[in-house]
Write a structure and sequence with these properties.
Layout lengths: L4 H14 L23 E5 L4 H4 L10 H11 L5 H7 E5 L19 H18 L3 E4 L2 H4 L8 H4 L4 E5 L2 E5 L15 H21 L10
Parallel strand pairs: 1-2, 1-3, 3-5
Antiparallel strand pairs: 4-5
Helix pairs in contact: 1-5
This protein binds iron/sulfur cluster.
């Protein structure tokens, strides 16, 4: 099958990204996550991968426990994991596992330096893909597109945002990791459900009917 210009550009981009050591990561077992999507119109932007996702064998974002929760959310709007991974370009604020948090609880938040060094990859992807829709997941990713604000005020809404690749609709989601207590408060569950409903409606508009299983 003939590859499109975008697919070829993303192949080249991912080959360079896969070899990146720009912010000083030295552990050869810690490598950048990569997305296999080659004709995406939607991007999802996470924060930073966990250990399981960034090892040589895996290299897939959201392959761990938080990913299971996120794909359960997506299943609730009729989108299965395989379809999502093949149609949505999954990026992140930083692409390599930052290591454990010094407190021993969870992962370290990538430093400002690491975030700045990694930002060029995201800007290139936005410029290449020019996504119609962006789904930032978690505060760090959301603040790449929206001014700092309480999650209560921005989850459950569609935002219109200008970025390196033009303008896109943005539907933010909270981080699905168990470390985030926000999502477990009953009033916030309703905001999450509203956000997922909006996301389902957008995907149903952008994708063929076969990619989104509509509930009867
Ligand atoms: S976190 Fe980003 S900038 Fe740092 S080595 Fe990984 S891909 Fe490169």
């Amino acid at each position: 099958m003939k590859q499109t210009k975008l697919a070829l550009a993303l192949d080249t981009h991912c080959a360079a990204l896969g070899a990146c050591r720009q912010c000083g990561h030295k552990d050869p077992g810690v490598v950048p996550i990569l997305s296999p999507a080659r004709a995406p119109t939607v991007m999802l932007v996470g924060q930073a991968p966990g250990q399981v996702e960034t090892s040589e064998g895996e290299r897939r974002a959201f392959a761990g426990r938080a990913g299971k929760t996120m794909f359960r959310w997506l299943a609730s709007i009729g989108v299965d994991e395989a379809t999502f991974r093949s149609r949505v370009y999954i990026a992140a604020v930083t692409r390599c596992y930052p290591g454990a948090h010094p407190s021993g609880r969870g992962d370290r938040v990538p430093s400002r330096f690491e975030q700045e060094q990694c930002n060029g990859w995201l800007e290139s992807e936005l410029t290449l893909i020019k996504p119609r829709l962006i789904v930032p997941v978690g505060k760090l990713a959301i603040e790449k597109f929206l001014p700092p604000s309480s999650l209560d005020l921005i989850i459950g809404k569609v935002h219109d945002v200008e970025h390196a690749g033009g303008r896109s609709r943005v539907i933010p989601l909270p981080h699905p990791s168990g470390a985030s207590s926000w999502v477990n408060l009953p009033r916030n569950r309703a905001l999450l459900e509203r956000a997922l409903g909006l996301l389902g409606a957008e995907l149903a508009e952008l994708w063929p009917a076969s990619a989104v299983r509509r509930s009867a």
